[in-house]
Amino acid sequence: GIAWSREVATCRPDYYKWNQWLFLRMLEKGIAERKTQVVNWDPVDQTVLANEQVIDGRGWRSGALVEKREIPMYYMKITAYAEELLADLDKLPGWPEQVRLMQKNWIGKSTGVRFAFPYELDGKADKLWVFTTRADTIMGVTFCAVAAEHPLATHAAKNNPALAAFIEECKQGGVAEADIATMEKKGMPTGIFVQHPLTGDKVEVWVGNYVLMGYGEGAVMAVPAHDERDFAFAKKYKLAIKQVIAVEGQNFSLDGWQEWY
Predict the structure, then answer these.
(1) How far apart are CA 127 and CA 46, in angstroms?
(2) pTM exceeds 0.85 for this model
C-alpha cells in the first residue's frame, strides 16, 4: 500500500512556507532581486515562456504568436557567482567537454568596455550607454542601434506612428539568440542624434530588431566596417561604412563582407 503519511504535496502550506522562508532569506541577502526584463509572453496561456518553449515564434502549448514583454520579476543574482562558476568548471574532470562548454556559454562572460554617447533631449542632457568588446573600433562608429524596448525608442515613437508600428512588430517573436541570428535585420531611424564621445560628431540612433534589451545596455555602437551584422544593416539602409582597421596585403571593399574585416 501507499503510506500517505509520507506524501509531499507542494501546494500545502506546511510545505511551501519553507520555500517562502528560504526566498525571504535570499531577498535579505541580496541574492534575489526584483527587476524588469524582456521575456517571452504567451498571450493565450497568459504566462512567461522559456526560449526553449517558443517554437518558430509560437508558444509550444497554445500555438499563439509569442510577444516580447517587459515585466518585473524576481531574479536570482547568479551573476554574483559567475566568476567562481567559470573558474571551477575546470575542476570537473568527469564532465563531458561539451557540457562544460555549454555551461561556459550559458554564463556568457563578455570582457569589454561600457561608455556613453551624450545627447540632449527636450532641453535635458543625458547619455546613451553602450557596451562593446571591441573598443578599438570606436572611430568606425557611424550610427547607434537600440532595442525596441529602449527608452529612446519609446520616446521617438510617441509622435511617430510608423516607428510605433515597427516597434510593435519587433516585439513579436522570441528572444533567443539563435532566432535573432537568422532573422532578417530590420531597422528604422528614430530621428534622435547622439554625440560621438571622441570626435563630437553627430551619430544617428536607429531602432534595430537585432538588438537585445537584455544584453549590455540594450544599445550598440554600430561599426559596419568591422561587424557583420552592422555591415548587412548599413548596406540595406545605405548608411556610412567607415574602415578603421587594416590588414597588410588585404583590400577593403564594400562589395561584400570578408572574414578579415
Answers:
(1) 36
(2) no
